[in-house]
Amino acid sequence: MTDRITLVPLTEEMLPRVLELEKLCFSVPWSRDAFLPELRDPACCWLAALAENEIVGYAGMQTVLDEGYISNIAVSPDHRKRGVGMTLVQALLREGLGRKLSFLTLEVRVGNREARRLYERAGFREVGLRPGYYEKPREDALLMTYDYPEGESAV
Description:
Layout: E1 6-9, H1 15-25, H2 32-40, E2 44-51, E3 54-64, E4 67-75, H3 84-98, E5 103-109, H4 113-121, E6 125-134, E7 139-147
Parallel strand pairs: 4-5
Antiparallel strand pairs: 1-2, 2-3, 3-4, 5-7, 6-7
């Protein structure tokens, strides 16, 4: 089943719901103070996924020159396996294309097989390991990269 998803820029007014999702999705959730500078930085892109006007997911990336980094992707447990995560990833890939990035990277828990499969289906490949990167529980991070081929058209 695929939810009908609308993507909109993530705003400060949306943070109460986003912070709820942070606590549901991550063992070490971001705080409001962590989000605010990101939302105000033009080198960052944050999107909210809406299903029937409810925030069911969000994603953010940072860019420096021609390099991009996906800092966060979260989907409500009630809306997983419905295309929300892929919709967010593809939107960030398109944003990176518009910003003329050479590549986009992210980290994912080694044990998070569902997320790893999602990123692989989106075209990311494994490029490294960050030992002990995550806390609660301590776990290695897999570094994954999406390379934009020269002259690539929109994703």
